[in-house]
Recover the amino acids of this structure.
């Protein structure tokens, strides 16, 4: 026993000494600025403290996305509570490691806690699994970032804040057809990732319709995401001058780096998963010069709402927020707006709140970080305009 | 004769405890006395118990280390999902559909078991382990490429080996349903699994394994484990008995996978990766090699543990890792083991049986 | 020309696998255990050198040394706390403990360095242009290949000539007999872990330099691949690990290029299976017939 205790002590001492090397951060959310911007359609008489659950991968290889969602939601909740309006929130975030089974467990755990509204889960696969449960239990679910249409289809009480995959694939193809006609396109996507494959599929079919020329398609999986020289060489020798990357920013940064090392300089075109690349610690923004992306959120925006959010996020978490955090922030405000429209009180049960919110969602309009005048259809999809930006001197600019 | 009796007694005691546990949990669940969190885990726990028992057949009883057991679970899960979706309109009775789903899962996993087992079982020790790992990864990659849908003409199946195909290339009629969409996996499964089915699955698994172990074939398999050369010299057919144990183990894993597959509305191939194989191996080793009862307890405990640790929030998985290491040290360190052995003399025999591998 | 560039990127990838596999194979040869935490030591090495360069502003070579020192200490501590108490336990128990250690390291890294991927500043940058710019070879690939060759040669000489190396080989043959001949088995195993972990640190730096980013799970997949490489070449054999690593990298790269990017891993594993069926102890492993 003594030895094991010793083992534990040494291990934790080691962890602490290593911690000295990492960047310092405090998880305690500090003073949140007053909210501005988010507005609701109609003001009801909703009141009380509602229990809000958040689910996302807080550990494991997708932890970056889940942590951003949890932090973004926390900032919105802190703001709303500090403002002291009739609606107050209590927030609890649970880890799902981006896995369906664990996500359902997290969801059940939150129900035990007394969750009334669910903001989550973060990733697509987990969201589909939880959405089926939430549909059966009649719990209102608003996912900040799960973009597949499978999440919302056939479930009247499930809504999305982010763009759907088809929306992004079609949007990208349309943009290219309009502005970059005649270019030879290569696509590199991750084919064991529902998000990436979803966008790829819709992009390819829309591209065929618009007469875009796709000269190369390369794939990779989580297991082979370290070396892209083969895919890049393939794209280069196929003569591609535009490379479409419907992937997240971490592999994208590796691709940009390796393309640069090879001396291959096409126009890279990304989607919302690309956002965050500029704020990666140690990333050389020069590599991303000229990269185009469709994104709903930019941490560089100068409007007051974004600036307040970014500074609050930095004060609380130490990093610059990405679009996952922004989506979660908007999700909390959307929940607030919908609650205001319904006149629910916090002593109502989740099912009653759910029915009222399902009716209220299509009626509200939210001006958030990820879009002005966001509205929802009764099928659960959000309507907001994607913004095409190009990276210039390490910042997003309009092309 | 005496030994025979003892093994029969162990089997009956195990059945009895499982039935008792089921009755208690079922009663608590129906009375609404379980937390949502626990009652939601009942089916996965049954699946993992069954996985652990079936892997114990390979690792504990046959004595070959397998690092790809999740691959068979994957085959069972996806074939089960296809079967259950396809039969949705043909067979309205849910229990019958569930039974058929699990049979299909088991059958296809058994086929996979034969394909994998034929080459693998010629190898020994860690080389065998790495080849099972390789097969597990290959199955994962292939399932990742799978596109399946059905319409009035029947099932449409395609392998997206080039990376250029999508579900649209299946050529489904209007009104056709996509069941598995490559990396997106199965996303619209009807969840028909129930705790009772889980219980039946565990009972069937136990029944099959106990009967195999206590039969002539089972004794041959254990003789192979203890000394292959001696066993061969008395006329035991190595390949036949190894295959028998391996394929049975794969089929049971397939049935468990099928139940798992229809318990969640979404399922991706990446779920059944190396880490899942390892997790099941952890159940087996922790529960004791050859000890079926131990496997089940370990599977249940280690499935609930990460959930029970949610109060540690960010430190949850770290605590889980520390608990795992400490438990392994506590149960395997000779000094500690002797201490435990002295406290409970009756445990000693079990440990000896477990340590034989 | 394309073929050459695919080949070189394969060799460079293979060299990283080979360095990791050398660590695996040393530990396996002597301690007879599969150290699944090895991949996570690579990740720790990567983070330490990242911190040294980015936060402390140290030059790259100092950061590599620092990473080696930290990883060596870490490896020895892990061995002493988690593996040594299980020396007489069944090998599966040690395997599970190693997996526990792997979870522990990954989750500690997640808490210390957070989930956000870091971009690793390459230790060397730029590339060598050959044949009128048609073929470009990143310098980091050349460095990786050279480092791999030097390490392989060094280890071969060390195990065959030095006293400690001989002790290692003795332990690998028969621990009990080695003990009787006056060899300190525990110390020998500690040294093995120290060397293996130092190699992991170097592999970590090279892996991150080639592939740019660093996350708490960076080490797991290369770890599994390197394990495969070690078995491929014949586990326990130093030239075998080298050969296995190189072949694995080249097969992966070429199958991505000419067969399917989708199935690169499948092909690697399929080749492994075929090789093991033909040579059940790996390419250069000793086949020990079972005796009664």
């Amino acid at each position: 026993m003594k030895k094991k205790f010793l083992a534990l002590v040494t291990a934790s001492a080691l962890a602490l000494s290593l911690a000295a090397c990492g960047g310092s951060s405090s998880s305690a959310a500090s003073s949140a600025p007053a909210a501005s911007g988010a507005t609701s359609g109609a003001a009801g008489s909703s009141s009380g403290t509602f229990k809000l659950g958040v689910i996302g991968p807080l550990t494991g290889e997708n932890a970056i996305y889940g942590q951003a969602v949890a932090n973004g939601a926390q900032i919105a909740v802190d703001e709303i509570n500090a403002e002291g309006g009739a609606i107050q929130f209590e927030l609890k975030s649970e880890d799902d490691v981006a896995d369906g089974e664990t996500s359902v467990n997290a969801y059940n755990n939150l129900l035990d806690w007394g969750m009334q509204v669910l903001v989550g889960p973060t990733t697509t696969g987990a969201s589909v699994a939880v959405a089926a449960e939430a549909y059966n239990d009649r719990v209102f679910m608003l996912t900040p970032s799960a973009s597949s249409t499978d999440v919302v289809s056939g479930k009247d009480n499930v809504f999305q804040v982010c763009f759907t995959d088809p929306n992004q694939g079609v949007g990208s193809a349309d943009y290219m057809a309009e502005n970059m006609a005649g270019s030879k396109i290569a696509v590199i996507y991750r084919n064991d990732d529902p998000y990436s494959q979803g966008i790829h599929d819709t992009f390819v079919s829309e591209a065929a319709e618009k007469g875009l020329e796709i000269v190369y398609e390369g794939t990779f999986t989580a297991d082979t995401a370290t070396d892209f020289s083969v895919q890049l060489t393939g794209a280069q020798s196929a003569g591609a001058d535009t490379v479409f990357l419907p992937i997240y920013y971490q592999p994208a940064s590796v691709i940009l780096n390796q393309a640069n090392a090879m001396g291959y300089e096409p126009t890279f075109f990304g989607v919302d998963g690309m956002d965050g690349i500029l704020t990666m610690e140690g990333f050389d923004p020069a590599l991303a010069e000229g990269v185009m992306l469709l994104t709903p959120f930019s941490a560089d925006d100068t409007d007051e709402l974004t600036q307040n959010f970014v500074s609050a996020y930095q004060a609380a978490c130490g990093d610059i927020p990405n679009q996952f955090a922004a989506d979660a922030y908007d999700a909390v405000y959307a929940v607030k707006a919908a609650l205001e429209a319904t006149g629910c009180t916090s002593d109502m049960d989740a099912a009653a709140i759910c029915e009222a919110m399902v009716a209220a969602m299509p009626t509200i309009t939210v001006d958030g970080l990820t879009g002005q005048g966001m509205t929802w259809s009764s099928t659960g999809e959000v309507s907001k305009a994607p913004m095409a930006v190009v990276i210039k001197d390490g910042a997003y600019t309009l092309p | 004769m005496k030994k025979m009796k003892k093994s029969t007694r162990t089997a009956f005691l195990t059945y009895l405890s499982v039935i008792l546990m089921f009755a208690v949990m079922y009663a608590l669940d129906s009375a609404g006395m379980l937390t949502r969190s626990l009652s939601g885990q009942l089916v996965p726990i049954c699946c993992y118990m069954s996985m652990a028992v079936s892997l114990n057949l390979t690792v504990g009883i046959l004595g070959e280390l397998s690092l790809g057991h999740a691959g068979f679970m994957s085959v069972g899960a996806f074939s089960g999902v296809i079967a259950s979706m396809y039969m949705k309109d043909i067979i309205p009775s849910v229990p019958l559909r569930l039974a058929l789903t699990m049979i299909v899962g088991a059958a296809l996993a058994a086929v996979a078991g034969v394909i994998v087992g034929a080459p693998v079982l010629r190898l020994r020790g860690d080389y065998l382990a790495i080849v099972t790992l390789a097969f597990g990864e290959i199955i994962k990659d292939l399932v990742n490429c799978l596109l399946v849908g059905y319409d009035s003409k029947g099932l449409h199946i395609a392998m997206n080996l080039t990376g250029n195909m999508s579900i649209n290339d299946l050529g489904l009629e209007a009104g056709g349903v996509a069941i598995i969409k490559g990396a997106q996996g199965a996303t619209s499964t009807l969840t028909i699994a129930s705790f009772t089915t889980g219980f039946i699955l565990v009972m069937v698994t136990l029944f099959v394994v106990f009967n195999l172990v206590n039969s002539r074939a089972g004794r041959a398999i254990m003789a192979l484990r203890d000394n292959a050369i001696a066993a061969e010299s008395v006329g035991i057919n190595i390949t036949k008995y190894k295959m028998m144990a391996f394929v049975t183990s794969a089929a049971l894993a397939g049935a468990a996978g099928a139940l798992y597959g229809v318990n969640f509305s979404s399922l991706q191939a990446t779920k059944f990766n190396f880490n899942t194989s390892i997790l099941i191996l952890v159940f087996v080793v922790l529960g004791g090699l050859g000890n079926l009862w131990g496997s089940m307890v370990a599977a249940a405990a280690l499935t609930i543990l990460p959930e029970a640790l949610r109060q540690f929030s960010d430190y949850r998985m770290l605590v889980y890792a520390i608990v795992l290491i400490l438990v392994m040290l506590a149960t395997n360190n000779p000094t500690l083991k002797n201490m435990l052995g002295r406290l409970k003399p009756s445990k000693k025999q079990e440990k000896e049986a477990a340590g034989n591998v | 020309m394309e073929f050459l560039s695919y080949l070189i990127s394969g060799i460079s990838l293979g060299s990283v696998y080979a360095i990791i596999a050398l660590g695996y194979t040393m530990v396996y040869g002597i301690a007879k255990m599969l150290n699944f935490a090895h991949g996570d030591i690579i990740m720790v090495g990567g983070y330490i050198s990242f911190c040294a360069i980015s936060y402390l502003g140290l030059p790259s070579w100092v950061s590599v040394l620092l990473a080696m020192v930290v990883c060596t200490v870490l490896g020895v501590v892990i061995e002493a706390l988690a593996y040594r108490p299980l020396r007489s336990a069944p090998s599966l128990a040690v395997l599970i403990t190693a997996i526990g250690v792997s979870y522990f390291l990954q989750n500690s890294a997640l808490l210390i360095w957070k989930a956000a991927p870091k971009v690793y500043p390459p230790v060397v940058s730029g590339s060598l242009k050959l044949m009128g710019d048609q073929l470009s070879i990143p310098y980091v690939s050349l460095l990786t290949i050279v480092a791999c060759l030097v390490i392989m040669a060094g280890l071969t000489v060390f195990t065959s000539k030095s006293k400690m190396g001989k002790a290692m080989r003795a332990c690998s043959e028969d621990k009990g007999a080695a003990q009787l001949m006056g060899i300190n088995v525990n110390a020998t195993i500690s040294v093995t872990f120290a060397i293996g972990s130092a190699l992991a640190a170097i592999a970590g730096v090279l892996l991150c330099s080639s592939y740019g980013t660093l996350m708490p799970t960076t080490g797991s997949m290369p770890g599994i691949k390197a394990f495969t490489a070690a078995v491929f070449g014949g586990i326990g054999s130093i030239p075998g690990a080298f050969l296995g690593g190189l072949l694995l990298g080249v097969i992966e790269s070429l199958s991505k290029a000419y067969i399917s990017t989708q199935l690169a891993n499948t092909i690697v594993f399929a080749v492994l299976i075929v090789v093991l069926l033909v040579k059940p102890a790996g390419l250069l492993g000793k086949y020990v017939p079972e005796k009664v």
Observations:
- The CA atoms of residues 15 and 147 of chain C lie 8 Å apart.
- Residues 2-125+137-278 of chain C form a domain with the ABC transporter involved in vitamin B12 uptake, BtuC fold (CATH 1.10.3470).
